[in-house]
Write the structure tokens for this entry.
Amino acid sequence: MRLSSSLIGAAIAVLGCASAWADGQVPMMDHEKPVSCARDTKGKVWRIQCDQAAKVCLYAANDELDSEGDRVKPLERARDCAFDAPVDRVKLEADGFTFLPARADAPWGWTRDERGRVFQVNFDLHNRIYFGAGYTPRYILDNPFQSKRTSIDFGFLSFDVLDGPTRHRFRFVQGQVHMEPFSAEMVLAHYDVSHRFTDPLLRITTFVGEPQRHDLRLNLGMWDEAGGLELHRTERGNAQLWKHASAAITLDLWQSANLDSYVRLRTGLGLEGQHDDVQGYHSALTASSALEIDTVLDHAGFHNLRFEFVHELPHYFTQIGDNTGKFATRLRARVQYEAIVLAINDQPVSLKIAAGGEKRDDIPGIPNQWAFVADAGLRFSLWAPPRSRL
Amino acid sequence: MLAATAATAHADTCTGVTDEGAKFETCFDLGNRVSVTAGSDGFGGGIQLRQLVKFDDDPDLNWKLEHDFATLERASLKGEVDAAVYNGRFLRHTRDGHIVLPGMGTPRKVFLPFDIGAVVEAGRVTVRNDMASGNRIQVGMIKTAPVVDLWRSRDFRRRLVFGPVARWDIGLSRDPVAISRHIVAPFSMGMASFHLESHDGLLAFDVGVEGGSAWTSDRKWTPLVQGSASIERIVLAINERPIALLVGIKYDSEFNETIARVGARIVLFHVADSRVAHL
């Protein structure tokens, strides 16, 4: 082992200065570049990563440290380091290299504190199990402010599969329940897919000035849901809306590089059945159209924004009332912002703020006018791995 | 003498050996099995699966996933039923628990002495026929609880978890079947659960308590309490399929009932404990 004594001395000095690392200014090794390991005269292993271009070598203990600077356990999530390339600090310094204390490397989406402890700092909220609670006051235009309304929401399993230019999105058992007055909605299974077509549908070339080509892509996709359920409790009794299955075609107006953010239009048909205490059971074929925005606002996945405006037109197979007849209308708009505020054991807790409005004439007892709802609450998510690096 | 020595030598590895040299299992995995039960309160059955997810780049981390599918806890001759489509317990075990505060600059890490996870239940069905309990059907649409495990373990043999509970149940009336009420607990209930298995899997002990206030669409806020305790002891195995004695008691304020149980569990299929030598 040719690790020089000067390196050992510098390394030991680092231990004494561990508290000074807390300012976050200590550089961090690159997880994608090779790391060498060397053992000092006391047998302790050090990680060393040299940048040949910048002539800088970073070094760090190969173990986690306790508050006293003593080594307590092996590093987690650090790349393997090789002992086969001896480190000669004297020779490297003679060649112009500078040695700097550093934090050991951590994989994408993770970082390390001054003691070498690793933790996640990048979260993909499209891959998770979540549940939360919120305060959801509702304002109906001619009704007083209903201040007792609280809600819970849940998503049993959400995950995306990125397969080249295609992203498949799966959502299972997602929904929310509101109290006072009661309402609930849940979807058992949801699947949609976005695809980026490399060949443009139309190539438009302009010849005014310098000839230029403009590609028009038609990024079509698919959207499906099965097992949707809405429950409402009104002055005229209970109403259940079973959305058996829905299918739609989507057109992505904008896609992010990794397809996890989009602006899209969708339109399609669904089969539903409604049961209420006034009109009994009746089925409908429902045409629906929507504008949807789902975007991750920052690289680390801490800020997430969703918007949807949905227009649904149930066409009942039988006439169900003097006012509604065979047709009804449902309009719904909702915007939601979700931000991660902390993580417990690398599982994020997020703040959700949402607002929305709804106007519908399909359920007896719900006035055919806009009702607005605001929502603020906390969500706890499990899993939430780091986002794709794309 | 040689056979007796061999049997002793293999006892610690969960594989017993008869005087004739035949091998048999002496340890059992209680989490991977298909079983039926019969007892003083009725019959039942279910499918249990356990998954231990490990990570090569972080050997101090694993996910302990337990799934119970199509669990019929009991179906009595009176037509009473307790069943659930799915029960899941997900615990993320790390050697060091911690909390990360993103802050405005460099994220900070503060250590906490527990694992975290979640308990999820979907599709619970409770049917009662006697007038005292309301002659009704109750469907648990979803129940979930973020939990902390104070008795951290890398395996499934022990846990002591606490957490707030969110649940949504629907009460159904009969003739005609219609929704009669909703029960919603927006994390206004709490749960505690204790589980302990012996090293050889022959004995398991469970205690669970859940209580707090829930909003109901007829009585508004009302206190609810549930509690249960059970012991399972494997007493024999036929063709390596264990048969266990069950003793338990369960209380539910919602139905105003306390049910004691003595019965047996017969395992139809199971995954052999990993410590058992190939027979």
